[in-house]
Amino acid sequence: MPADRSVIADDRLMQDDQSSSTERSFDVPPLLLEYWQIVMRWKWLIAAIIGASVVVGLILSLLMTPQYSAKVRIEISREQKNVTNVQGLEAAEASRNNLEFYNTQWALLEARSLAERVARELRLATRDDFYAAHGVEPVDGDRGDANSSLRSAALRQKREQQVVNLLLDHIAISPIRGSALADVGYTSASPELSAMIANQWTQQFILASMDRRFASTSDARTFLEGRLNELRIRLEQSEREAVNFAARRNIVQVNRTAEGGGGEGQTTLASMNLSLLNAELARATAQRVTAESRMNGGGRATAESISSPTLASMRAKRAETAADYAKMLVQFEPEYPPAVALKEQVAVLDRSIEREEGRIGGARASEYNEALKRERDLKGRVEALKSRLTEQERDGIQYQIYLREADTNRQLYESLLQRYKEIGVAGVAANNIAIIDAAKPPQEPSSPNLPLNLALALIAGIGLAGLATLALNQIDEGLRNPSDVNRAIQLPLLGSVPDVEDGSTLDLLRDPKTALSEAYFSIQSNIAFSTDHGVPRSLMVTSTRPAEGKSTSSFALATILARSGRRVLLIDADMRAPSLAGFVGLPNDRGLSNYLAGEDEWQDLLHHNGPTTPAYMLTGPTPPSAAELLSSERLPKLIGLLGERFDHIVIDSPPILGLADAPLLSRAVEGVVFVIEADGVPVRGIRSALARLRAAHARIFGVVLTKLHQRHAGYGYGYGYGYGYGQDREQEKRS
């Protein structure tokens, strides 16, 4: 091959790579369409998996034991019914968060402790009907135990655990959205047992809720009892200290009014005595002043003398006697004896009156002295009480400290004692859970639900089919559509060929209006753009493995080139499995192997059929070693001689993998057209074959994708827009 041809080929290869990289993004099909092609490719597998899943679901549904579900509807309120009107331990803000509160309640309804309470209450571990309703056998004890009591205890514990696990597996809590209601359901093979367990479950939930409240109040009462005991000891100690201090300081407290919790309004015995003595002293002083004024007052006509009845009677009698004496002097002489007697009687009365008045004056002095003495005594006692009260007031400061401490301890003790009594009745009959509808034995089984099971089986089948399809699609590395060519092997796509029925290929190629002819005509046009001088003078058509359509492609390209009036030669170089002789119906007795073996008359090896058909050179007899013949220098020489007579030479080459023929042939031609069967050879095999060609410095014009199924027409590589489209329209008009 000339040097300038290799340079042109390298430049053209770089241009092809650049064009393929720029157009690669436009070759990617839509994702949904790609998935649809995958589904259509594996449709029978998908149908088989889905059908098998539905059949398995039907069989399992028919073999399942009927299950019965019983439900109890309950209401769980945030606020408890406080019968005693006493605040409990929980604050009012504790249940503001509805979501947290109700999530907690739903979790408590599924708690293991609740299942244990139900199992103990109904004694389910000893009931055979419970195990039969769940289709299980009770666990057996370990017969190797020597102690029968230990064996029975261990067996009972194992069965209780088994029962609890069964209860938790078959209970269902279904909150009703947007409300405080919830359904507690239980499912088993026995409708009566399901209803009984569902009802018992709610009852035990209510009792467990009350037990938790009582347990919390019990802890609070225990705590308060300890605090009350401490405060009682402190109260007794503080009161004892106050009493002892008052006894030591002789503080006698008569009464005390606590003002503001203090004790500042106390009244002691000393203060009371001082108050009373002070009042008596005031009265004694007043009496002394009165007595002194009486004693110092002059005259005989005093108030006492005037008010004295003795003096009054004596004065009245003297007045009468004096009057009688005066009357007698009118009639008789003073010396008249009766007159003298009356005179003496008046004198006696005067002396008596004088003595009485003297006695009254002495009583005034005595009264004054007594009042003065009493006043002095009271003053002394008041002064003594003042000094004592002053000492008590100084001691009263410390005494008030003791009293205030005692009062504080008493108030704390009384408040805690009141709270202790309230907590004792706070949880009485308090309940925030109500049963709306009790469970009744169901009449119809809840499962198996045949339509639902079939729907689930259908969904499962679709999922399994999707997984299997994706897995197989990943494992299968064949090129399934034209857009995969640029992405997988980074080579330009010359064209794609639709899949046709066996035996009709030659007929379709001879008719230029068929989709197959149009496809190869498009390929020939793209090949013409791969060089700067149009269609290559010599090219080779090969593939990775046999039966990929390389011989058909070689024949089609040679036929289309010859149809345009050019001189074309088609050489069948696959001396291991020749196919051209079968296409054209000629005997394969002479051909390429004869020339390569040493025969020089190559003109005798050609078969001419007409001006619009290509000339053929068959393979000839099968040689012992085709690779040795192809590696000789006679092959490039033959191509050079044929190139002088023909415009184009098309060589049908053997496949690449496992053979050395194709790389040897690539040295004698301008380039290679690589044929790939759709959904055929894995990509790694194609890359390996291309690597062998590149190692031989072969120029690869591009890829022809053959046997493309009609389902890939959606990618834009269909053949409905050729002459067939016009023929279909003509047929529609005629009809």
Describe the model.
The chain is α/β, with parallel strands linked by helices. Among the domains are: about 70-220, no CATH class; about 485-735, P-loop containing nucleotide triphosphate hydrolases (Rossmann fold), CATH 3.40.50.300. The protein has an 8-stranded mixed beta sheet, sandwiched between helices. Strands 2-3-1-6 form a 4-stranded antiparallel beta sheet. The chain has helices at about 5-25, 30-40, 45-65, 100-110, 110-120, 130-135, 150-170, 190-250, 270-295, 305, 310-330, 335-425, 450-475, 485-490, 505-510, 515-530, 550-565, 580-585, 590-595, 625-630, 635-645, 660-665, 685-695, 725-735, and strands at about 70-75, 170-175, 180-190, 255, 265-270, 435, 495-500, 540-545, 570, 605, 615, 650, 670-675, 700-710.
Q: What is the second-level CATH architecture of the domain at 485-734? A: 3-Layer(aba) Sandwich
SS strand fraction: 5-15%
Secondary structure: number of strands: 14
Helix fraction bin: 55-70%
Question: Which key features would you list for this structure?
Answer:
four-stranded antiparallel sheet, disordered N terminus, eight-stranded mixed sheet, rod-shaped, 24 helices, 735 residues, 59% helix, Rossmann fold, alpha/beta, disordered C terminus
Topology:
Blueprint: H1 3-23, H2 31-41, H3 43-63, E1 68-76, H4 98-109, H5 112-122, H6 128-134, H7 148-170, E2 171-175, E3 181-188, H8 191-248, E4 253-257, E5 265-268, H9 269-296, H10 303-307, H11 309-331, H12 337-426, E6 433-437, H13 450-475, H14 483-489, E7 493-498, H15 505-510, H16 515-528, E8 538-543, H17 550-563, E9 568-572, H18 580-584, H19 592-597, E10 606-607, E11 615-617, H20 626-630, H21 634-645, E12 648-652, H22 661-666, E13 671-677, H23 683-695, E14 700-708, H24 723-734
